[in-house]
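Supplementary Methods. Inverse-folding protocol.

Structures were first reduced to a discrete structure-token string of length 156. This string, shown here, constituted the complete conditioning input.
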């Protein structure tokens, strides 16, 4: 293996280990991933292009298995109207703002969907549905992650 690939692999492995450490917050993980991508690129481009969609779908299903059905049912009954109305509002405002600012329609749709629903997984699910290009998907996921990073959080 060429030395540059070994260095990339070592840095990638170190960043993955750091990201999954309990004491590392999401902001540092996002920043380290951004620095890695901008400086070294993707050492596993063929692998990620081939398997990213499958891994994402598998992960979303896995998250679903972790839900407590009783809690989900209770929360759905209590907050269904609020959930539906805020999703519709966020989608509508995002699409209107996109049109007002002259943003590409597919990019605006992806950003609005990711913001309104659940971030990157919503964008990844919507991208093939609307025929978005890879760069539109990447840009919209990046924007939604940055929005999530800078958004104020409640007290923990």
């Amino acid at each position: 293996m060429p030395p540059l690939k070994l260095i990339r692999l070592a840095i990638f492995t170190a960043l993955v280990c750091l990201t999954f450490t309990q004491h590392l917050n999401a902001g540092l993980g996002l920043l380290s991933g951004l620095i890695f991508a901008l400086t070294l690129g993707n050492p596993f481009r063929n692998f990620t292009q081939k398997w990213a969609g499958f891994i994402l779908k598998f992960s979303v299903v896995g998250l679903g298995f972790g839900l407590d059905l009783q809690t989900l049912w209770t929360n759905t009954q209590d907050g269904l109207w609020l959930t539906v109305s805020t999703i519709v509002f966020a989608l509508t405002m995002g699409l209107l703002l996109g049109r007002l600012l002259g943003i590409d329609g597919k990019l605006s749709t992806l950003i609005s969907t990711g913001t309104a629903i659940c971030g990157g997984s919503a964008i990844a699910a919507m991208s093939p549905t609307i025929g978005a290009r890879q760069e539109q998907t990447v840009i919209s996921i990046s924007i939604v992650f940055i929005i999530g990073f800078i958004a104020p959080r409640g007290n923990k």
